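fyi for ur records
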Amino acid sequence: MTKVLNVDALPEPTVLKRAKRRRPGLLVANAIVLVLAAMAVTTIFTNPRFEWETVAKYFFEIRVLKGIGVSIGMTTVTMALSLVSGTLVALMRMGDSRLMSTVAAAFIWVFRSIPMLVQLLFWYNLAALFPTLSLGIPWGPRFITFDSNSVIGPLTAAIIGLTLHETAYIAELIRSGLLAVPDGQRQAASALGLTPAQIFFRVTLPQALRVIVPPMGNELISLLKATSLVSVITLADLLYSVQLIYAKNFQTVPLLIVAAIWYMIITGVITLLQQRLERRLGRHTMLSADKAGKVKRIEHSV
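which gave:
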């Protein structure tokens, strides 16, 4: 004889409360951090040698604002050129041609090995190696000849040096993102009749962006800070602008604080844009997965 269990007669299950784990070490660490932070803030705002009045005086100085424009402009142009050239180098590195892959690997090795400051100084002094630059047929006649000093100025040398340096790193970031996409995705797209260009822009690249964007944002921030190196070739960026000012009034520390605060502000804006783009890509991924799930449920129901 089978007994029928009356579920309604069972007692209500008791909800167990999770006991909080005591962490005395964490409390001590938090207290130490708070004390150190309070000491740092107090020192910064009470030490008269920081000269916050001078910082406020020169914070919106016209030469400082022009230097900010130069730094942002160089960062934007360099990143745009590096994205294009880095994509080409990454595709060469992943291509079927052994020659192209070897050349791309050699390019990445060379420009990742040489420090950025050395590259900037090299391109700025290119006239010592090539007094003239010309356009023409290789090993043939020259059509146009330029004086190297008139073509390679501080701005041109900075953009060339920064772009070549960033291209090597961005090429590896893009290559890692493309390799993260399963090869079956490309094979399925090819089976549907898509061309290689359509496969790259519609299938591979959208999925690779989720891997590429986070380190690319960090690379953009590093590039912004690296633009300060162009001050050694007398290009009036943010750092060089404040250097010119404190060379006259000898207010070195306050003007360096001005440059540091502006770098932090620009970096904060880039970080916010990066986080917003990452959330948008993540939301797009969730919507795509939800649509794929609906299609599968329809197929099973049919």
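The CA atoms of residues 25 and 197 lie 57 Å apart. thats all i got for now
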